[in-house]
User: Fold this.
Amino acid sequence: MRIFAIKTTRSRGIELARAITPPFVWAQLYRRLVVKDIPDADMYRPNFQPWRAPWFLAMYDSIRAHTVVPPERAWTIWQMASQAASLDGDFMEAGVFQGGTAKMLRILAERTGKTLHLFDSFEGMEVADADLDRHVSGDFSETSLEAVQAVVGAADFVQFHKGWVPQTFKGLEDRRFCFAHIDLDLYQGVRDSLEFLYPRMPKGGVIISDDYGFASCPGARRAVDEFFADKPEKPLALLTGQGLIVKL
Assistant:
């Protein structure tokens, strides 16, 4: 027997019911009366959350121990890199830490025939600007090149660049990049990465600034906003805390 289903949440009755119902109880009612039996119902919490797909969660479980990026942010990286993979250019991650999202990008790079460039000191942060950043020297030092290589795996299409940006960009001036995940937290590193990337990215290329919306990384947002202030692209602040830029 089919249970009555509410077809819309845009009504005074629904708003009133949500206002007077305890959140846990409302969540259960919402699933039974609104979500009901629509396709992929298990991925509505209450809105559609595609990162809950079993195939993606299985992949995320393989990197979970090596990243501080939660599934919803990892999904943004995966989806936008998948979109950019149709364009000319390499993949890049600046700020690798323990290699979790790098391993995910390696999977996609192998599937799509891309070269993946990984930039990190592999020894933590250098001295930050106290006027722009909240991190301090030595943050995220729980890593090493050898440990990350063991997580990501060796392959001809994966290139590790140990050191500090922008020095580690030297020798890559002739490369093109269709996708970049910038997770450097600090103003100068983010700004230097954008200065290098932007002229080497084709139309439709994607940049994700991992730290854009986080109060712990005000320098990262400032670097992005300043860089794009005189450019046609407008950084999009996502609810995940990431910033998204698509090259025009």
